[in-house]
Amino acid sequence: MSVHKELKKVTTHSLREMKERGEKIAMLTAYDFSMARILDDAGIDILLVGDSASNVMAGHETTLPITLDQMIYHASSVVRAVKRALITVDLPFGSYQGNSKEALASTIRIMKESGAHAVKLEGGAEVIESIERILTAGVPVMGHLGLTPQSIYKFGTYTVRAKENDEAEQLKNDARLLEAAGCFALVLEKIPSKLAAEVAASVSIPVIGIGAGAGVDGQVLVMHDMLGITNDFSPRFLRRYLNLYDDIKGAVGNYISDVKNRDFPNQKEQY
Ligand code: KIV
Fold first, then answer.
1. Site residues for ligand 1, CB cut-off 6 Å
2. Catalytic-labelled residue, pool 20, 129, 189, 269
């Protein structure tokens, strides 16, 4: 069966059905129109306008600097490209941690100004009130536990989370809270695969992993990493499907020499 010819739109409901019938969910990040069009045409289920745009699009070291306005700009570019995938947008650092009213106001801006379908935010018990308030406005929410990059200065490193019992128990409890609050899905980042599988089996909502092993309901990767546009980030969980850094560098090198050698444009490439 050709997945990308199936144009039925992905919804929070169809994602739940995928979990129920054991069909894995494929999710990638996207930040711009042209790439989002290709990923959607290929049949991706969820596109995440991740705050990783702060790293891969803007060149910041962390996800903290990206603003709500910048996220809305990326999200609206993705929305214009997509026909099938469910588009989820990260609430950026500083746009929801204050209180639930702030979280709802930021969410409403994203939904109204970009046309996206859902939001994602990081955290467990401490953000439950905000999640409930966003849900009262009818906006689907995706949770995010484990390594939560917006808290990098609290963690100190990007190493695997929840290896110790206390943190694992807290994560399991947070996952149950997020499900009970009404999240439609949950991202688990960089935690032991056994723990991630246990969480996925214990909740009825889809659990999407990044560096969380094979026992979850779906996988997400940062598009620039899996296509090899970035070449300086090689965690164990990353599978590179292309090596675009070298391919693009080679192509640009060929262009430069064609221009310098007066080979481009040729007779057929001009008016
Ligand atoms: O911003 C992002 O890319 C993410 C994924 C790593 C899940 O949150």
1. 29, 48, 50-52, 90, 187, 189, 210, 220, 222
2. 189
- The answer on 177 and 79 residing in a single domain is yes
Q: Is 190 helix (H, G, I), strand (E, B) or coil?
A: coil
CA of 149 to the centre of ligand 1 (A): 8
Is 17 a known active-site residue? no
Judge if 170 and 217 occupy the same domain. Answer: yes
The answer to whether 198 and 205 have CB atoms below 8 angstroms apart is: no
Which ligand 1 atom sits closest to the C-alpha of 187? 7
Residue 42's domain spans which residues?
12-240
Q: What is the pLDDT of residues 81-122, one digit of tens each?
A: 999 999 999 999 999 999 999 999 999 999 999 999 999 999
Distance of alpha carbon 264 from alpha carbon 205, whole angstroms: 55
Q: Which residues contact 219 (CB under 8 A, 6 or more apart)?
A: 24, 25, 26, 27, 208, 209, 210
- pTM of the shown model: 0.96
